Amino acid sequence: MAEEVKLFRTWSSGYALRIVWALKLKGIEYETIFEDLTNKSPSLLQYNPIHGKVPVLVHDGKPVCESLVILEYVDETWKHNPLLPQDPYEKSMARFWANFGDDKLMKSIWQLFIAREKDQDVAAVEALENLKLVEEQLKGKKFFHGETIGYLDLAFGWFADFVSILEEIMSLKLVDGERFPHLSSWIQHFMDAPVIRDCWPPRDKMIIKYQVMREKYLAAATPK
Amino acid sequence: MAGEEVILLSVYPSMFSMRVRIALAEKGVKYELKEEDLTNKSLLLLEMNPVHKKVPVLIHNGKPILESLIIVQYIDEVWHDKNPLEPSDPYERAQARFWADFIDKKVFDPARGIWATKGEEQEAAKKEFIEILKILEGELGEKPYFGGETFGLVDVALIPLYSWFYAFETCGNFKIESQCPKLVAWAKFCMQRESVSQSLSDPHSVYDTVLFLKKMFGIE
Question: Of A214, B26, B58, B148, which is the most buried if we count CB atoms within 10 A?
Answer without folding.
Answer: B58
